[in-house]
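Notes, p. 3: input format for complexes.
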Amino acid sequence: MSRRAVIIGTGHYLPDQVIDNSWFEDKLDTTDEWIRSRTGIERRHFAAEGQNTSDLAIRAARAALDKAGLQPDDLDGIILATSTPDFTFPAVATMVQAGLGMTRGFAFDVQAVCAGFVFALANADAMIRAGQASRLLVIGAETFSRIMDWTDRGTCVLFGDGAGAVVVEAQQGSGESTDRGILSSDLNSDGQYRELLHVDGGVSSTGTAGHLRMQGNLVFRHAVEKLARTAHTALDRAGLQPGDVDWLVPHQANMRIIAATAQKMQLPLEKVVLTVADHGNTSAASIPLALSVADGEGRFKPGDVIVTEAIGGGLSWGSVVLRW
Ligand code: UT7
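Output follows (324 residues plus oxa(dethia)-CoA):
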């Protein structure tokens, strides 16, 4: 027998304001055609003035709790992935805890940029398997629109705001790959590549929030190579093959990266959950958003094998394999 962390509810929230690619055309030397063909992005949501990361996260969290049929105090803790917190501290997770009216448990943030949700989910799985928690809310929430350089066409057209959340619960499994829940994970970082994707400000350096800087084509090459590898590693750990995968739920950064990864895993695009066209790159929020959208459409069936994978600043990358 072994404890497994099973997803029992998903939820998401996207801010009302939808920005089409054409919005950028009169501000920058860019076109809807370039953005669509190079990234697959057609539109993205931007948070309203005064709407912070915690506000998006609370809406997503409530939706996930409703879906799971739980009250906030049924949870043992909240793990929230973000690189765009409301404040330097406290953790956004504690704001979500207060916003939900949750009076017990713990709440902390994880910072692994676009790979943040994968890191948070792997941590939740470890805590559940260790017996340290039985029910956790795992959230990815971002307001990347707040760290864009609006004069840099190579980055500001790519990102959007949003939040996604899942509730994971401890359930008894057999320890075999036929169990429901998280079956394996694989986490990696290589700080020698930190300059490729970073923010040029921070508390102890400039005292400012800074702006996102990215050498997109170099990150692209790392992504194509590392994402398929981490997915294979995690599948191997779970005792599964790429042919066992029902759904790939990738980080939604670029349609060309997603397609290349799917091809390396020999998965047809029909088995890939795609939200990049409508959401853009929402960093740590992109995977829980995609999980919630697909779950809401009833696409996942009990027993389906789902692989998530992401790469982002650090560089940090990883994957989680789970059975729905
Ligand atoms: O989520 C975290 C991980 N991040 C990622 O996974 C992002 C990875 N990178 C990418 O998705 C792609 O590299 C980009 C979408 C950022 C860029 O696509 P690319 O095919 O790698 O283009 P590039 O950076 O090599 O640039 C090609 C050309 C350049 O012009 P020149 O030098 O060839 O004249 C750029 O200046 O495209 C130009 N360009 C643009 N043109 C029109 C860059 N951005 C734009 C733009 N509109 N918005």
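The chain has two domains: 2-173, 181-323.
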